[in-house]
C-alpha cells in the first residue's frame, strides 16, 4: 500500500535585519557569570561592547552621566570606553550574565549600536526572556566542548535580534534603514592606515595626503560613517592598544614611547579625556572576566 504525500517547502526570505547581520562579524571576547551574596559597588571600564543580563538581583548602573535602573530579568547595553559604576543593593543575591564582544566592520558597528539602543539602553524583562538560554550557554562555556564558541556566538546573534525587535516595537517601527555612505571605502582605507601606523605619531594631514583627499573631506567622511572626527578615532585606537599593554604590566612611559606620544603625561591626558580616568586608575577599574 502506497500513500502519496506532497511535501511543501517554505522559502526563507531575507529582510533588512538579516541582511545587516550578514554583513557583520562578531568577536566574543568574554562570556560568563558574576555572582555575589552581598551588596556591592564597583566601577569598571569596558573597551568593547557589553550586554549584562540580570538573572537575580538588580542594579543601579551609572554609565557616563546617565543612570539606569536595571531590575531582575532586564538587559543593559554598555558602549565601549565608558566608566561604569554598578550599585547593587536591596537584594539577597546577585547573579549577572555578561557578554563582551566587538563588531566588524567599524562603520556597521556604529550603525548597529545606534539601532540596538535606539529607544534606550535597558531592555525590560517582559520584552524578552532568556534565563534558560543563558544557563545552557554557561554550561557550554564551562565544558568547552567541540564547537562551543560557535554555539555561544549564535546565541549572541539570536539575542541581538530579539533586542532589536524589542527596540523597534517600542517605536512601532517596521523596517530598518542603514544609510550606505559614499565615504565608506575612504574610511576603511583610513582605518587600515591607522592600524598600520598605530605605533607612530599619526597626523590627519598625512592620512589625507596618502589617500589623495583633503583633510576636510576626511573629516566629513569620518563624521558621516563613524560619527566621530578622525583625530578622536586615532586616539581611541591608541588608548585601546594602551589598555591591553597596561594589563601586561607595561609602564605608562613605555607604552607612551611605543605609541609615539611625546610623554607619559600626554598619554595619560588622552586616556582621561577618552575613558574618564588616568591609565593608573583604569588598571584598577578594568574588569576582565574569563570565558
**CATH topology of the largest domain, what is it called?**
Jelly Rolls
Radius of gyration: 22 Å
Distance between the termini: 56 Å
Sheet with most strands: strand arrangement:
1-8-3-6-9
Instruction: Give the mean pLDDT.
Output: 85
Strand content: 15-25%
Number of domains: 2
Fraction of residues in helices? 40-55%
Strand elements, count: 9
Q: Count up the helices.
A: 11
What does this structure look like?
- It is a single chain.
- This protein is α+β, with helices and mostly antiparallel strands and 291 residues long.
- Helices cover 45% and strands 21% of the residues.
- The protein folds into 2 domains: 16-170, Jelly Rolls, CATH 2.60.120.280; 184-285, Homeodomain-like (Arc Repressor Mutant, subunit A).
- It has helices at 16-22, 106-116, 131-143, 148-170, 184-196, 204-211, 215-225, 230-246, 252-259, 264-275, 279-285, and strands spanning 25-36, 40-46, 49-56, 59-63, 66-70, 75-78, 82-88, 94-104, 122-123.
- The strands form 2 sheets. The chain has a 5-stranded antiparallel β-sheet. The protein has a 4-stranded antiparallel β-sheet with strand order 2-7-4-5.
Amino acid at each position: 500500500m502506497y500513500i502519496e504525500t506532497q511535501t511543501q517547502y517554505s522559502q526563507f526570505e531575507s529582510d533588512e535585519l538579516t541582511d545587516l547581520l550578514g554583513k557583520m562579524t562578531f568577536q566574543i571576547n568574554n562570556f560568563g557569570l558574576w555572582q555575589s551574596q552581598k551588596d556591592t559597588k564597583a566601577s569598571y571600564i569596558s573597551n568593547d561592547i557589553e550586554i549584562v543580563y540580570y538573572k537575580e538581583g538588580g542594579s543601579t548602573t551609572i554609565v557616563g552621566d546617565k543612570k539606569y535602573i536595571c531590575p531582575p530579568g532586564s538587559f543593559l547595553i554598555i558602549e565601549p570606553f565608558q566608566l561604569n559604576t554598578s550599585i547593587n543593593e536591596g537584594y539577597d543575591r546577585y547573579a549577572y550574565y555578561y557578554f563582551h564582544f566587538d563588531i566588524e566592520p567599524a562603520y556597521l558597528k556604529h550603525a548597529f549600536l545606534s539601532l540596538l539602543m535606539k529607544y534606550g539602553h535597558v531592555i525590560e524583562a517582559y520584552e524578552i526572556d532568556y534565563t534558560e538560554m543563558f544557563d545552557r550557554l554557561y554550561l557550554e562555556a564551562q565544558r568547552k566542548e567541540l564547537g562551543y564558541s560557535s554555539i555561544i556566538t549564535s546565541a549572541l546573534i539570536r539575542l541581538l535580534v530579539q533586542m532589536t525587535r524589542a527596540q523597534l516595537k517600542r517605536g512601532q517601527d517596521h523596517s530598518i534603514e542603514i544609510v550606505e555612505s559614499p565615504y565608506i571605502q575612504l574610511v576603511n582605507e583610513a582605518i587600515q592606515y591607522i592600524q598600520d601606523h598605530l605605533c607612530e605619531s599619526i597626523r590627519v594631514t598625512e592620512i589625507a595626503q596618502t589617500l589623495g583627499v583633503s583633510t576636510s573631506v576626511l573629516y566629513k567622511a569620518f563624521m558621516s560613517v563613524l560619527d566621530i572626527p578622525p583625530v578622536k578615532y586615532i586616539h581611541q585606537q591608541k588608548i585601546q592598544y594602551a589598555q591591553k599593554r597596561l594589563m601586561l604590566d607595561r609602564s605608562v612611559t613605555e607604552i607612551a614611547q611605543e605609541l609615539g606620544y611625546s610623554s607619559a603625561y600626554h598619554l595619560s591626558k588622552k586616556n582621561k579625556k577618552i575613558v574618564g580616568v588616568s591609565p593608573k586608575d583604569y588598571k584598577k577599574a578594568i574588569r576582565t572576566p574569563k570565558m
